[in-house]
Amino acid sequence: MRNPAVLLLVLLAALAPVRGLRSSDELPGAPQKTPILLEGATIHPVSSESFTGSLLFDKGRIVAAGKEVKAPEGTKKIDARGKHVFPGFFDAWSQIGLTEINAVRATRDLSESGRINPNVKALVAVNPDSELIPVARANGILLVLTSPSGGLVSGLASTIQLDGWTWEDMTLSAQGGLYVNWPAVAPASAWLAKGTARKQLQKREKNLRELTSLFESARAYATARSARGVDQPVDARLEAMLPVLRGELPVIARAETIQTIQSAVTFAGRHGLRLVIHGGHDAPLCAALLKKHRIPVILRSVYRLPRRRSEPYDHRYTLPRRLQDAGIEFAISAGPTEETAHIRNLPYHAAMAAAFGLGQEKALEAITLAPARILGVADRVGSLEKGKDATLFISSGHMFETSSNVERAFIQGREVDLSSRHKRLWRKYGEKYRRQREDK
After folding, report:
1. How many CB atoms neighbour CB 228 within 10 A?
2. Of 335, 415, 325, 401, nearest to 364 (Cα)?
3. How confident is the model at residue 114 (pLDDT cuts 50, 70, 90)?
4. Which positions ≥6 away from 240 have C-beta within 8 Å?
5. pTM for this model (two decimals)
6. Has residue 74 got a pLDDT over 70?
7. Alpha-carbon gap, residue 301 to 345, rounded angstroms
8. Is 88 strand, coil or helix?
9. Which of 242, 331, 376, 404 is the Cys-Cys partner for 397 at CB 3.0 to 4.6 Å?
10. 16 class by beta-carbon count within 10 Å (0-12 exposed, 13-18 middle, 19+ buried)
11. Got the DSSP string for 356-415?
12. What is the 3 state secondary structure string of 37-67?
């Protein structure tokens, strides 16, 4: 096949499935140049009760919030009477920036080959031009934890803000946690389960041995590093484990059932690890254990079906309230890998939890301040307090109502573009049907 024309046709054919994939049109926000005062809005600080008043921010940080706020000369004033001001919503687990279209392999950069990859960093693979970012941002989601997946130890998750030219610009915290797909303890009996119960148990034992070996090797490596210093050869995988061993970084364990949660807690206690449970379907059944060890839970969405026939239809809807009643700290995320495109629905997951007993204020906390606390960035984001980042938005109504829209949004004081591919298509086809009506 040496004919140049033929080679060109082959190349174009290969590129055809992804030719529509391009960077989003929205530009990152420009740095804040003057103080901005939001006047007359319903302010939702989250860390305290809501009130009607004003909020002032300058140089990317909140300066003051209250019923009466004095603004310095040259302040840009925004009339927000009748509007609501929220801290940026925070999805506590996602893969935004790592996947675009699940059906197109070329747009999915979720995992590395191999089973043990503690040194893998999701952050460096984040695509700042993803079309999913403006869509999520337009519904108030301004912060996310983005995480790798696959294998046993997937790698390091990172907290990012949804605005920036590069992944470096988007970084809020490069190290959010070490993500581990915790081995399922009880064998699955469903028709889709792979292998017999015996084979599943053998696989579980193998996985647990691998995890134990990894942590023991990392501890031995840390001892050698301490003794030999620069003379100790660097092992990238074990080097990445050192912050976990020191307790600076949590292990985020994917665990749904009571047996799997108990296994993760026992392992963490034995090795002196900080632990966060991701999933947590059965978390209320081992509430005493989680509370004793102060282990928070990141719920893997509220809009999900029950796992068992014996569970009521609203099992997932009431799960946040039951965790709240048990005194367990938790955050709500919008869903699993295959639902990355639906991260925009995060406020409605919280709204469902609020309607099923959690209450509006606690539900709002579950998608703002709670994930910030769990992931160690509450000193910067999660609530509207003096000194924190001005990462917030103005909406036409309370964002738990689907009729409400985000009207303006700011990330570290930078006003961000709220347009998106969804809105462009809405305007395009709105114009199409307007013309058709005129023609008639």
Report:
1. 10
2. 401
3. confident
4. 118, 119, 156, 178
5. 0.90
6. yes
7. 10
8. coil
9. 404
10. exposed
11. III-HHHHHHTTTHHHHHHTT-TTTSSS--TTSB--EEEESS-TTSTT--EEEEEETTEE
12. EEEEEEECCCCCCCEEEEEEEECCEEEEEEC
Q: Residue 425 is which amino acid? A: L
How many Å apart are CA 244 and CA 227, to the nearest integer? 19
Kindly report, residue by residue over 231-274, the tens digit of the pLDDT.
Answer: 778 889 999 999 999 999 999 999 999 999 999 999 999 999 99
Read off the pLDDT band of 184 (50, 70, 90): confident
Q: Find, among 86, 97, 85, the residue nearest to 144 by Cα.
A: 97
Q: What is the DSSP string of 104-154?
A: -GGGB----SSSB-TT-BGGGG--TT-THHHHHHTTTEEEEEE---SSSEE
Q: Give the whole-number percent of the chain exceeding pLDDT 90.
A: 74
> 174: helix, coil or strand?
strand
Q: Is 316 exposed, middle or buried (0-12, 13-18, 19+ CB in 10 A)?
A: buried
Rounded to whole angstroms, the Cα distance separating 381 from 377 reads 6
Measured between alpha carbons, how far is 50 from 400 in angstroms, rounded to an integer? Answer: 15
Q: Is 248 exposed, middle or buried (0-12, 13-18, 19+ CB in 10 A)?
A: exposed
Q: Which residue has the tokens 């965790």?
A: 323
Find the mean pLDDT for residues 96-118. 86
